[in-house]
Amino acid sequence: MSTVKRLVITSAIVLFGLSSIGLGSTARAQEIEVKGPLAGAPAVIGMRVYRQMRFQIQLHSTITLQDEYSRSILGGAQLMFHPTDWLGIGVWGGFTLAHVDTNLTDQVKIKGQTNDLNVLSLPNAGNFNKQIATIDWMAAPQVAFIPLRGKLGIFEKLFVDTDFYLIGGIAFIGLKERQNVETAAFNGCKNAGGGSLASQIGCFGDTQGTRTSRSTIAPTFGVGLSLFMADFLAMTVEWRAMPFSWNTSGTDESGDSKGDFPDDKINEKDRLSHFNHMLTLGFAFYLPTEPGRSHMDSK
To answer: Does residue 28 sit in helix, strand or coil?
Structure first.
C-alpha cells in the first residue's frame, strides 16, 4: 500500500471517530434537556404581568413637531383596557393649551412684503400670525400592540421594567384655518377705493384675522415606551403621526381649471398634504394597583 493511500485511510478513520464522539455528546445533551428537572418549565416564573386585565389611565402633555408656522402644546388623557398583556383597546385625546409661533412666522412678520400679486395671501405681513392654521383638539380611538418587554439598565445600576408598544387608530382633529375668500369677495376688494394697493390691503386685511373652525379625520399611528416606576405607575414616551391636508399658511396655493396660478381664492383647494406628528410625555396609572404574576402555579 502506498504512502498516499495509507494517509487517506488513516484520515478517514480519524474523522469517523471524531464524528461519532460529537454525535454522542449531542445525543447526551438532548437527553439531559428532555429529561432534566427543568423539562417543560416556562422561561420565567412569577414575572410581573403589568397590563393583562388592567385599566390604564394616562395623563399626558404633547407638543407637535416640525411645524411650519405654529406649534401646538396639548394636555390630555388616555383611557385603555388590556384584555391581555400584549393588547390594549382605548381612546387618546387632548386639547390645545397654547400655540407657539415658529421662527419662520416671526421672519414673515418682519420681512414679508405685500404687493399687487400677493395682496390676497399676505394683506399685512405684521398680522401673518393671525391667518395661519392651528390644531385645537384631537381624539383618537386606538389599539395598542405590545410586542417587546424587558428591563432597561441605567448606568448598569438601576434596572427598570420596560415595554415597547405600537399604536394605531383613527384620529379626529379640530382645526382653525383662515376663512374662505371667494370670487365675489376677491373682486370686491380688488375694486375697493379704485383698486389702489392701500385700499386692497385694508379690504383683504379684514379676512386675514378671521379663522373658521373645522374638523377632519385621519389615520394615526406611532410607537411608545413605558418605564414602570411602580406596580401601578409608568412613565410613557410616545411618538404619533397623523397625515392630513390643511392650509397651514392661510395663503392662495392652488390654480384654476385653466391652469392659471393662483386662482385668486382661498378655499378647500388650497389645503396641502402634511405629515403631522407629535411627541407625548405622560404618566400612566393602572387599576387594579397590583399586577398579575406569570406561571405562579408551575412546579
So the answer is: helix
